[in-house]
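My current task is to audit a protein record that another person submitted. My question to you is simply how this chain folds and whether the tokens agree. This is what I was given:
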Amino acid sequence: MSSKRPNPSKRFTHEEPDTLVYQIDDRLYVNLTDRCTLACTFCPKHNGCTEVKGHELYLSERPAADKIIELIGDPTRYTEIVFCGFGEPTLRLKDLLKVAKAVKARGGKTRINTDGLANRVHKRDVTGEMAECIDALSISLNAQDEVTYNKHCEPSLKGSHAEVLKFIEAAAKVIPDVSATAIDGLEGVDVVQCAALTEARGAKFRARYLDVVG
């Protein structure tokens, strides 16, 4: 495992309260975890930055789902509630789904920004569980082949690129709005090929740009 991944046993407490939800434009983002299955070279947190658009996202402790629900309040005030934050939200799948179900019960819309490795991590197809309360998925495909993917994403699990492709296909069958993304301009990444791989699996493709959140 990469030494760049957050070590929960070495957390420090900062003076200000943790940022558990934060608003960008008309969306509310949920900062559920700082853990991740990847250690992407282009990720700000691996380059000394723990902020996104002025929001400090370092977590000193693991936030409770009920606390997140309380902070969201009325979800209809926002275009959507996005599970994104500082880490990979599907690593806390049970809590993510609890929050998402509460959002849907109150009339809100939900989206997960994910690395697409949930099925690999949880050792089962979780897309059906997500379909009960998730309106949209944005999946980071990141590269057209395993070599390029491994170079930029440094996965902790073998065969991660193939797993992401499988996840895209499975999700597209049960969730209304599924898109995959890759960063245009990242060395060796062919967004045309990424788009073809994505569309062949029934999902949409969207090119992303470094340091652009939303």
Notes: The mean pLDDT is 89. The radius of gyration is 16 Å. The helical segments are 65-72, 93-105, 118-122, 127-131, 146-153, 160-174, 191-199.
